[in-house]
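Troubleshooting entry. The earlier prediction with fe (ii) ion gave an output that would not parse, so I re-checked the input for stray whitespace and re-submitted. Clean input:
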Amino acid sequence: MPTTAGSGSEATQFTVITDSANDEKMLCPGLAFLPVAAVIDYELTLSMPPRLTADTGVDALTHAIEAYVSRKANPFSDSLALVAIGTIGRMLRRVYADGSDAEAREQMMLAATQAGIAFSNSSVALVHGMSRPIGAHFHVAHGLSNAMLFPAVTAFSVSAAEVRYADCARALGVATPGDTDATASNNLVVALRELCRDVQVPTPKVYGIDKAQWDELIPLMAEQALASGSPNNNPLVPTEAEIRDLYAQVYG
Ligand SMILES: [Fe+2]
């Protein structure tokens, strides 16, 4: 019974366990983690405060977009991902502004589950791969660490799958069928920046993470991001150096 509209874990074959001895979040895949049944009731999400609403909602959007651009994407996951992207695009700001908006809460809950089914049948990618080490080392909530990375990682990745990112932009409502794929995929990057601004996503710096500590952990975080396997599903598979650059880029 999910109580946030975010992780989609009620419908995925993944869970995440943090090794508190070495601050590493490990992705555990397998059908044993897939619930046999799920009770999905949006009323359980009505009491979420705005920050949690935004963070979990951005997580769901990340699931949908990463599922769609993943190297493991397929027609089944595509259909669910695109529908979820559209719904979250229309509803996330609404539910952030007014948590008692029952219709928006219900739509977000449905979209989070659809996005979960989508990535469970495809995969997540570089945003999630880089997000887990931030969460583990600096105790940043999962959706928020995704959000800190989402625009920059998307900007890094678009050139490798322009058509796919353009589809995401059109599903999100930030490009028209008449726009070229280059324009549409660029619009997606801009739209993600605007969404993060509108739901007040802080940079790691504004969040209060010490610059020296961040810089010191970049090599280890890059190594852990790669070890998770998720970056290999990214349309543009990054080198370790490129991951280090992205961490440096998003700090401030
Ligand atoms: Fe996630």
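This one parsed fine. The two ends are 37 Å apart (CA to CA).
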